[in-house]
Hints:
The complex is a heterodimer of chains A (401) and B (276). Chain A is an alpha+beta fold and 401 residues long. Among the domains of chain A are: 184 residues, no CATH class; 88 residues, no CATH class. Helix content of chain A is 21%, strand content 10%. Chain A is built from 14 helices and 15 strands. Chain A has a three-stranded antiparallel beta sheet, with no helix packed on it. In chain A, strands 1-3 form a two-stranded antiparallel sheet. In chain A, strands 2-4 form a two-stranded antiparallel ribbon. In chain A, a hairpin with a 2-residue loop joins strand 13 and strand 14. Chain B is rod-shaped, with a radius of gyration of 31 Å. Chain B folds into two domains: 156 residues, Glutaredoxin (3-Layer(aba) Sandwich); 84 residues, Serine Threonine Protein Phosphatase 5, Tetratricopeptide repeat (Alpha Horseshoe), CATH 1.25.40. The N and C termini of chain B lie far apart (86 Å). Chain B is built from eleven helices and seven strands. Chain B has a five-stranded mixed beta sheet. By secondary structure, chain B is an alpha/beta fold. At the A-B interface, helix 1, helix 4 and strand 4 of A face helix 4 and helix 7 of B.
Amino acid sequence: xxxxxxxxxxxxxxxxxxxxxxxxxxxxxxxxxxxxxxxxxxxxxxxxxxxxxxxxxxxxxxxxxxxxxxxxxxxxxxxxxxxxxxxxxxxxxxxxxxxxxxxxxxxxxxxxxxxxxxxxxxxxxxxxxxxxxxxxxxxxxxxxxxxxxxxxxxxxxxxxxxxxxxxxxxxxxxxxxxxxxxxxxxxxxxxxxxxxxxxxxxxxxxxxxxxxxxxxxxxxxxxxxxxxxxxxxxxxxxxxxxxxxxxxxxxxxxxxxxxxxxxxxxxxxxxxxxxxxxxxxxxxxxxxxxxxxxxxxxxxxxxxxxxxxxxxxxxxxxxxxxxxxxxxxxxxxxxxxxxxxxxxxxxxxxxxxxxxxxxxxxxxxxxxxxxxxxxxxxxxxxxxxxxxxxxxxxxxxxxxx
Amino acid sequence: xxxxxxxxxxxxxxxxxxxxxxxxxxxxxxxxxxxxxxxxxxxxxxxxxxxxxxxxxxxxxxxxxxxxxxxxxxxxxxxxxxxxxxxxxxxxxxxxxxxxxxxxxxxxxxxxxxxxxxxxxxxxxxxxxxxxxxxxxxxxxxxxxxxxxxxxxxxxxxxxxxxxxxxxxxxxxxxxxxxxxxxxxxxxxxxxxxxxxxxxxxxxxxxxxxxxxxxxxxxxxxxxxxxxxxxxxxxxxxxxxxxxxxxxxxxxxxxxxxxxxxxxxxxxxxxxxxxx
Lengths: 401, 276
């Protein structure tokens, strides 16, 4: 199944990316659709691997991504930054297009421009000085961009927009090979296959958020998942999160903390709804911790496996663990979803409003009420039952019923 | 009303809110006073859960859990980055884990703080927590200030910001910027005008006056309210021995920024040149 997002949802993100990828902006972008100057230099030298020495070198293997197998490697192979045939170029760098080699190179001779005047990024930042501030001010920086702009951009021209040596995701997964394998998993995410792909969510230069995210995961996700017309790969409608969260004020902690990635794999995966681990799909299931791998990533399995406790859960009557009572059964154990909403609810502890009953889809209300030291489920799967956390002891007047 | 009365009322209010809020969280509320206890440490000996001064950082984790292992590495980083501040770091782990396995886990992550063995998960239970890992920040009076649950993104940043805010080293606005950071747009918003201006500057430096002039004119066509671009325009014209036109350009720059040094100097040079 391929979970995908309607293509109509991406223009805003795509426009944002198009507007803001400024390494190739203005004069460079202006070249899109127009033929660069025919007098433009034929093949200036590649900037070469990161070095403080002025860049020089022969053209090398085409394609940045292919050369970055180990992204933690201190040095990477240089990429081919030779210009492509002007007729094929969709973007061209202003100085290259106008034949002004000496803006970046030692000489103004297109046939022999010599090495770059300075280390690559110093040359780039002579004009693109905003990146000096950007790299200095943001906490998360893309090492590849800090190292050499030419790791991803061709300073002459390119068959790709923004002078990119290849288009994301191919450009990115050339180094980020684990992401590539996730993208090939059974359940795919439209965010990677549509619009600006990786750049829908990541800033390839620098960001204030880990993983170079443009915004916190939730803020990125709701850019698309706050619409009514998003469907998965099977055409099944996906929830509008803005509406869901507005209508249901009790939010699961990862939702409240804007951390969708605590449970979901944004790049793709083998589980339903891009879940990071296994989660029971049905109302009843025999209890087996492996079936609850997703929930037990954060919640201690002792919450379910311990028959008596005063610490593992607050859903207990005295020390009788009611999670154990409901879930820990060899055949018809209630799964997490039987009683809890996973994202948000109206009732405390993400307790569902209702549960499906019978084959005709009738919804049985779960009238949960949180009490001073416990709670009550009233007129629901069973008759009204109240639980009290306080443990009955000899000197304790208040006892669990 | 005395401070003690006020504190009592506040404690009651916090308790009431915790008990009756329909939005009850799965952990103790801010303001809850955490009970101190002396517990065994995995490093050997005993230690109090809480100290008397500064900010108390309690890090709850499990050595057998992926999320905990990820967070342990981040906490090690946090410890280093916040070293020297009046902080009391304490790790807490269930006593169902052996000291040896806990020591291995914290050693691999580089965590330096003492780690207490939570007998029967009593501390964890008292905090009414329902998940691991998490960090609790408390003040010198042992009052819970912040509960930071596991987050895959920006966990250490969040802990650091909460701590620094508690220490009065960052403002509420700075804390808010960490908890809900502003979007980092791809690249930056630079207008085409600025880009042409930059290109013109580079062309001027390389001595290509004709193209420099073309580029700066394009820049000014897009945005005429750039004093530096007018000044550059003036310098290019001056270099082309067109001082009368250059003075017009310098005047435009000075109209936008009367103290623009480059325009002032350029204009003066042109005036002097014309006098000769």
